[in-house]
Input
Amino acid sequence: MAAPARIVRALLIFGSLAVTLAYAAIVIWYAREPAFFDHAEPTIPAVASVFSAGRPLYPALDAPERYAHIYGPALFLVHAAALALLGPSIVASKLVGALAILVGLVASYSVFRRRADVVGALSATAVCALVFATFDNVSYWTRSDPLLVLCVAVGLLAAHLPSRTLSAIALGATTGIAVNLKFTGPLYLMPVFAIAVAEHGARTASRAALLAVPVAVAPYLLPNVSLAHYWDYVQLSARNGLVTAKVLQNAEWAAWLAAPLAAVVIDGWKAVQVRRGAAGHLSSLALSMAIVTIAAAKPGAGPYHLLPFVPVLAYAFLWTTPAPFLTGARKVLCAAFAAAASLLAVADQALIVRTVPGRNLEAAIADLRRFTDQHPERRVAVGYAGTSYLSHARPEVVFRTGDYLIDAPAVQEHRLSGLPLPESTMRAIAECRVEVWLIPHGAAPFAVPSAYPPEALAEVFPEEFRRAFLGQYARTGEAGGFDVWECRGQAP
Output
């Protein structure tokens, strides 16, 4: 190997390792911070704790509890397991996403090595990390996306197992779990099934699909997981429709993510055609990405729903790239893609590094622990006020009480879908189901601006709910960063 080639090879290895380790460092740092970047992240450990306490994961539409989301049960089962194993804490829940994405990167590298040498596999892994980092903390937050990335990476490995039986079992189980993370989960595994067909034949892929069914159904056999209620919430969410601007935004991101692969395929289509199964894989990849691009155009969704495709796109690039690995225009395109991803990633992660330390919840958590320890006989909950991040500490109280009446992100989604707060919720306020609300300083109780445009939903909580609260509760003191609001009447 000539000296310049050796230098380039060494630089690629060093640069790829540096990028991947830097991303891993940020992921680990975020997991160890007792704070959240996204307002809906605290919902996941709170609901997981409620589920562990035996309460319904998906309450009926007319139930007083307003915390159900359309994430599948696997997300909450995994978080509940983490809370049980490591002890209930915000950090324990955040470790789920961190470990999922890091193990997903390791699995991705393993499968990349089947299609490229060490340099190619490390480079592809680093590019995956860069792309993940361009989406704020989505790739390692508490919600379902890092677990879906892990499912895709493990699915790719499963498709390459030498045993057809083991391949079918592993791919089927992974697909069933993906279904239970998000109802669009199977779309991310469609291209992986095309690989399984190429590697082991259609029978193995069919067996995997059949096995996915009982895995997907299994969580709904639990007494507090209702498939009927879950489907009610999915149908409710479907009423939100699609936002044209988001379709275009998602399409732009999909085109950007697929640009290196598209360039290679167009430039070397003859070479691609001779690779067994590549055409089917690319077709299923294009179809599934197109469907997700449209499905992710609902209000509140967006291009981050494309993240689980990133390992598949990198794998397809390595699989279809004609030898030599990169030459001419392809090299320039890949360098430009990596440079653009680097700029976006640095900007996004710098924002998180600047923002999250300022939201440190240790003091708020200490306040909540102190108050609940001093009033063990009282039913306590954390409420909401304006955009205060102190409400992010609400899982700490749920860990202790096993009760969770109102989740602001859930109420916001339900009202956008046309589901008002039911009479049972208003009655729970009137009857003081929660005896003491701890409301963050700084704004009126439950006066929370919606994240959606004002014409869609100006406030998360309706005026009648806030009036009912103020009519039944009175501010009686402070608990650190929280105002104490106690029931005026006699609690049942």
About this structure: The first strand starts at residue 380 and ends at 382.
